[in-house]
Amino acid sequence: MLRDTRHLLERHADIDEDGLRQTAAQILGRQFLYLNRARDREAYRVAINHYDYFRNLFDAVGWSLHRDDDFGFVGVLPAETENFTRLKLVDTLLVFCLRLLYEEGMDRMEVQAGCVHAETEVLLGRYETLLKRKRPGLTDMRAILARLARFGLIEIGETDAGELLPRLRILPGIRLVTDSHVMERLSAYQAEAATESDEMDGAEEAQP
Q1: pTM, whole model, 2 decimals?
Q2: How far apart are CA 117 and CA 166, in angstroms?
Q3: CA-to-CA distance for 193 and 147, rounded, in angstroms?
Q4: Which of 24, 107, 193, 201 has its CA 20 to 30 A from that of 66?
């Protein structure tokens, strides 16, 4: 990689070693960089302009670099199991629900710059209805949203008057972190939760 770096710097006067290092750090720190997000734009362009270099760089350390030119983002996912971030179950299930809301927004043609807007209350409603689970408390939910925002999956918007939780902007990176089998897994979890709920109801009815 040192040789690749030297060759890249020799061929391109528009980039220096610090610029390469900072771009790599931003990709790792934010996971996704978006063209339409001001704070990401410069690093996004460096990553896209020198995509092969960064792809090889991340591959060498166990990460896989991805790009989506239609929605204008670039990001990394772990290529090795031990690099995966272990989310809490509630975080993971909410990510699944966010993906569902994103796809529904796509179907309704409500996508703006690759993003879908949603109310947190709607997200929690899906969480309760589909998964038969009690929603997180207000403080916990705010902490979860902050974590998902750090991973580049959502942006947290304003809180409307009279509301306790903010509006959300679901970013297109949600599709990358939820693989092609995610809806199958969500459906399986939903079916399992429904079965457990029915069994509990039956047990309660059997009580004298």
Answers
A1: 0.78
A2: 11
A3: 25
A4: 107
